[in-house]
Design goal:
Number of helices of chain A: 16
Number of strands of chain A: 16
Largest sheet of chain A: 7 strands, parallel
Strand content of chain A: 15-25%
CATH architecture of the largest domain in chain A: 3-Layer(aba) Sandwich
Helix content of chain A: 40-55%
Structural class of chain A: alpha/beta
Oligomer: homodimer
CATH superfamily of the largest domain in chain A: Aldehyde Dehydrogenase, Chain A, domain 1
Number of domains of chain A: 2
CATH class of the largest domain in chain A: Alpha Beta
């Protein structure tokens, strides 16, 4: 099938999931979870071929690799979706207009989700699960490196749905792994309702540049922690260390520390040793280097960089206004935190930092659908249109107006 | 100024409106409305130069033309916005997470709105008004044909704001009227948060193809009225005539009539004469022409066409399922209406027609921010992402998460 035929097939069958209702959605999720566990051997064998063919290094191969435990985790993720409320059909608004028209605004699925992602076969099952529980058809386009794994996961799930009496063709996998195929996928206007790129900054930038389908920009996180003058050092250092080092490869990890000069004078050495103890490489501004000339100098570029590694940039600022301005200029509008005991500074930071999630006295690592109590997530939006921050089931819906009259015409 | 400099200037000043608060927003709106009336003479003189230079026919010139009455209407529109509640700061959600983090989801402005539109200088003031009351900076890019008018309107409003003690630089007009300038404007990622094209289908398609900034697709309306077998003819004909003829050039006007065969057998002649009495040109499917061979034959293309004129396509369908399938295939997901006395058919139509506004026994002409009680509108979205149907003040906002802790770190 061509890319267009694949997308059209998903759209043609989108009604089967949009109007399935919550009970059937849950039956599908349970059937899919069971099948993944039952056919783990087949999936692992197919995945092994991808892993064997992989020449992109051990870190890449590790993200690509599936084993019994990982498959069990994926299946458990599908089962968890059963507990979440299906958002479709929720009445968001209901009122009578001046002319007696009865208006209801009702939540509906987006329609056809397009997901474009890298060599993480877990995304295949996660995205299918979220699509099912939000009533959406889904077209998946993973990377060539994971094609056999993605085909195995998709066929196991689709067969399980078919055996349970459902038509699973609202789920489609694009097997065309070419660059042209990806671009074609990004331009399926009128067929695909939204494209969600999941993966590296370059994947996302490519989608922004090439897509004509509406996209949701996700996951690039140049996140900041700012130590305001009144910060409590006993909160500050654990927050920084957690945000920077608890998991470095994720979008809500801290990449840059800002701090007020007076606070740096008192605590910079202690902060630096705490970071160094965790093997964090430091690049610092000139004002920091006046306190500690042994620190490597940061370039302008460093302050724009999402290291995704044990590396951090440090900059001294003159108070909360400069911190806010710096974050809004150099950041990616993802997650930023102020550590302070000054209520006014906290309020200003919360109001004026232009990010999806803004924190006072907490780690940036909490920006996550599970931590926020959404139960699941499709990614973390860093744009302002449609959804911001973690996208759960509700964020995968739209709405429509249903209006009942008895012959009203416009005067 | 270059396009980029213009957009950057709006962004740099966006905080002045985002954090202005409702009282100041209202003062700005009132000042702007007064100034438009006070300087109507100047605006009309500048507009006259555009009208004199216009070689695109009387209809075009009429849309371009401003007079005292129209300017008064534009000013009154700004004053009406004073009565509407500013959506910024609304707490959409507030809860305590398992770890004691206090989470609030708060409505915030989108940031910088980009508006690209045709030779209707009223859009200039309308968009500025909506931007002010929704806390957004705005960059306007009208057509070359209206440049003098747009400059006059913008400078009158900006001067009025300045004289009232506000910095009006969050409002910017792009004076570069080149095609390249428009394309550059559509690619101001990181500066412009959303692009809203307002105007013809070709303008909108051009934005979809060229924009890398998130856009909201608006206003193309191939709207349907469907007479189901049980329709009450005394409601059906007035609804059709209203939807088709009350105003033909608007996106919520009806372009196509579907009807069941039995109903056509009983009423087609009466329907056709009601349309012809209003000078509506009719193109009809072969099944219609079996009843009335004198009707002109419709092409496949006709059923895809938004005539925006006294012209309609008519097609006989076999019941509500075919009507729904036809609308979802040929329509533009704007506004569609069923006329029926059958509750099941009505429910099915409301649920399964994939349009922003779906009606039972009412004219499609009601899809409008004012009719829906929003008090104003920036356009009517025909996409599913972010906003669907009329976009009022709330639809020009996003949200952010504000999270307060006391040292929480992720385990």
């Amino acid at each position: 099938m061509t890319v267009k035929e694949t997308c059209l097939k998903a759209k043609e069958h989108s009604g089967e999931i949009a109007f399935a209702g919550e009970d059937k959605m849950n039956m599908m999720l349970i059937a899919a979870a069971h099948a993944l566990r039952d056919h783990a051997g087949y999936i692992i064998a197919e995945n092994q071929k991808d892993v064997d063919a992989c020449t992109r290094g051990p870190q890449f191969a590790d993200r690509l690799m599936l084993n019994e435990k990982r498959i069990d985790g994926i299946a458990a993720g599908l089962e968890k979706l059963v507990q979440l409320k299906c958002p479709v059909g929720e009445v968001l608004e209901e009122r009578e207009l001046y002319n007696g028209l009865h208006l209801r605004r009702v939540r509906v699925p987006l329609g056809v989700l397009g997901i474009i992602y890298e060599a993480r076969p877990n995304v295949t099952a996660d995205a299918i699960g979220l699509a099912i529980k939000s009533g959406n058809a889904v077209v998946l386009r993973g990377s060539k490196d994971a094609l056999r794994s993605n085909k195995a996961v998709t066929s196991v799930i689709k067969n399980a749905l078919r055996e349970s009496g459902f038509d699973p063709e609202f789920i489609q996998l694009i097997e065309d792994a070419t660059h042209e195929g990806a671009t074609e996928f990004m331009r399926m206007n009128g067929i695909v309702d939204v494209l969600i790129p999941r993966g590296s900054a370059s994947l996302i930038q490519n989608a922004i540049k090439n897509a004509t389908v509406p996209i949701i920009e996700t996951g690039t996180g140049n996140c900041h922690v700012y130590f305001e003058n009144t910060a409590d050092i006993s909160k500050a250092i654990p927050i920084l260390i957690n945000a920077k080092t608890q998991r470095t490869s994720v979008c809500n990890a801290c990449e840059s520390l800002l701090l007020d000069e007076e606070f740096a004078g008192k605590h910079l050495k202690e902060i630096v040793s705490a970071l160094q103890e965790k093997n964090v490489e430091i690049v610092a501004c000139e004002r920091c280097r006046k306190f500690m000339p042994e620190l490597a100098a940061a370039t302008e570029e460093d302050f724009y960089t999402e290291f995704l590694d044990l590396k951090i940039s440090i900059k001294i600022v003159d108070g909360v206004d400069e911190a806010i301005a710096h974050i809004n200029k150099y950041g990616t509008h993802h997650s930023d935190s102020i550590v302070t005991e000054n209520e006014q500074a906290a309020d200003k930071f919360l109001e004026m930092v232009d990010s999806a999630a803004v924190y006072v006295n907490a780690s940036t690592r909490f920006t996550d659908g599970f931590e926020f109590g959404m139960g699941a997530e499709m990614g973390i939006s860093t744009q302002k249109l449609h959804a911001r921050g973690p996208m759960g089931l509700k964020e995968l819906t739209s709405y429509k107006y249903q209006i009942r009259g008895n012959g009203q015409i416009r005067g």
